[in-house]
Amino acid sequence: MTGTTALPAASTAADPAAARLLAEAAGRIEAPGVVLAISRNGVRTVHTGGSAEPGPVPRELLAHELGSASKPYAGLLLARLVAQGRVRYEDRAAELLAPGFPVHPAVRRITLRHLLTHTSGLPALPADFYPQAVPRWSTDPYGGYPAERVVRAFLRARPRHRPGTRWRYSNFAVSVLGHTLAAATGTPWEVLLHQQVLAPLHLDATRVRPGPEGTEAVGHRRDGAPVPALDTGGFTAAGAVRATPLDMLTFLEAHAGGPGLTDPTLAAALAEVRRPLLRRGLRHTHTHTLTWFHHPSPYGPVLFHAGATLGQQAFLGFRPGTGLAVAATATRRVHRADTFVATAYGLLTETP
Fold this sequence. Notes:
- Helices cover 33% and strands 16% of the residues.
- The protein is α+β, with helices and mostly antiparallel strands.
- The longest helix has 15 residues, at 171-185.
């Protein structure tokens, strides 16, 4: 079942060309529920589809699990706290988390910037995470690893590389960043994110915990069986955000050059997270900002991040200064031949 709606934000003009583009793209994605959304200078076009019958709540109004696409929210939060002078990128995480606690010299050198940019030297996940996770890998791998254990694993870590020397994607590191910011501000992560990012951007349908029954998209395995809502345990900052596709567009529109912001620290933070910061990948051909992957395209640079959970996928992307933003969700677990990310990425990089 599919349907296409044009949802103007700042304009009443619809975009039939975008509607056709989204409908064609959705046909390449196999999932019980699919939402593809484009915003062009505030004019929104949203296509909903999928193999399952739609429920009473439109798919674009259901909160979807963003998984690793939560990290840009953590990045914007850090950038705003820095703009406010509450923390610095060069602040050392261990000193903020546990002043005076004896840690490995490499851990002592890890800064907030290192944690967010995946250059801390920490592994993807703590070594002792896997024994408790493997027996429930397809149902609840994170729920049994709470915040205190993430912090303890960090303070006892032995990084493989000196901080700042190598890029290695790490859910562990970004999770530690969340706990460090909570400690530095004396504010729980969930409250801090709401105060500094969600409320100022009017993201009323974005949260880090499951909402009331009927408001959440249900994820599925490859065989179509439903999976329970994700419990991220102590890894909240790395992957716990849930948002409706419409809220995802609002978040992206703020990055892509939306309406002027009255708060100078938020405007400064949005500018900072767009700025190319480091090079990564084979022969360092890929650029990265504080929190976004940064690629070239025929229409200028694109910034994006994808995420996946046990039964859902999400994609966030925008082209700075052009007013183009792309948000996408699918309610089926990622697999080797999956076309979801490639399709969403194509919408971002190939749309004039």
